[in-house]
Design brief:
Elements (H helix, E strand, L loop, with lengths): L23 E2 L5 E4 L3 E2 L4 E2 L20 E2 L1 H4 L3 E2 L3 E2 L15 E2 L10 H11 L2 E4 L9 E5 L6 E2 L11 E5 L3 E4 L3 E2 L5 E11 L5 E12 L8 E15 L11 E5 L1 H11 L11
Parallel strand pairs: 1-17, 2-5, 2-18, 3-6, 4-7, 6-8, 9-10, 10-12, 11-13, 12-15, 13-15, 14-16, 15-16, 16-17, 17-18
């Protein structure tokens, strides 16, 4: 489940945080993370079932909120935590490590990231996704909010792109997974269409919804940052399978590092 981050784009992103607020999730559905940490100033409640079923080959059947390398050592830091309402053996991670009473101070918003990027970085304003032709930062200037679907998703193939929209962004492609490329999306509102099965990238928003679907979960490979509201309306017919499975991918940060951060140099003159 996503969480609320303190994003500091002038520094290298911390590749183990998966921030968002406490998510709103349909009854019976639950969320699982891999190779990530979870930070939120709100409480965390997750309906981990008695007999978890793996989402796919990247998942396992442990009753943990976070799984992955080193037995799922990702930290859960929240104001309160409740994972055992259904399964008394459920844990935050393989080491049962968590920090309750956490109260973060979060200053980064989609608007502030946009202000930072446009003030400190080179960018290009576009009104058509067909204008994405090279690596870089793109600022949406179209009249209607952009939709990434199966007809235009190939514009991100082979490119490293940070895409910023002052309005909303809808991810509608059945599978959004840029071939040979990496993408980050920054917007006040990011909406995943109900028929989107997988989305690969870094998604930064004030508000985020996964789309209402009672027969298809959502897998995100990359990372999710949500400042205010996260609504997960995904649900499998079998509630033992996670409805949202978020797999952290640090390579997407490394690919986009020139656009998500600034580089500092230290030098001295020698005689």
């Amino acid at each position: 489940a996503p969480a609320t981050p303190t994003l500091t784009p002038s520094k290298s992103p911390t590749p183990t945080k998966t921030p968002t607020p406490s998510p709103t999730t349909v009854p019976g559905a639950w969320i699982k993370l891999k190779n990530a940490s979870y930070y939120s100033s709100s409480g965390l409640t997750d309906n981990i079932p008695l007999v978890p079923v793996a989402y796919d080959g990247d998942d396992d059947t442990n009753p943990y909120f976070i799984i992955g390398a080193d037995n799922g050592h990702g930290l859960v830091a929240v104001s309160s935590i409740n994972l055992t309402a259904i399964n008394p053996n459920a844990k935050p991670n393989g080491t049962d490590r968590s920090a309750s009473g956490y109260k973060g101070i979060f200053s980064m918003t989609a608007d502030s990231f946009k202000a930072y990027a446009t003030a400190r970085k080179e960018y290009r304003s576009i009104s058509s996704l067909s204008s994405i032709s090279a690596d870089g930062i793109y600022l949406w200037a179209g009249e209607s909010p952009p939709t990434i679907d199966d007809t235009n998703k190939n514009q991100f193939d082979g490119r490293k792109v940070v895409f910023i929209s002052p309005g909303s962004i809808t991810i509608k492609a059945a599978v959004f997974s840029p071939s040979g490329g990496s993408a980050a999306f920054v917007s006040p509102s990011i909406i995943f269409d109900k028929d989107t099965r997988e989305a690969d990238g870094i998604f930064i928003a004030n508000e985020m919804t996964t789309g209402e679907n009672s027969s298809q979960g959502l897998k995100v490979v990359g990372n999710i940052y949500v400042r205010d509201t996260f609504v997960n309306d995904r649900k499998w017919p079998n509630n033992n399978v996670p409805s949202l499975f978020m797999v952290f991918d640090q390579n997407k940060f490394l690919d986009l590092l020139p656009y998500l951060s600034t580089v500092g140099y230290e030098w001295k003159q020698t005689q």
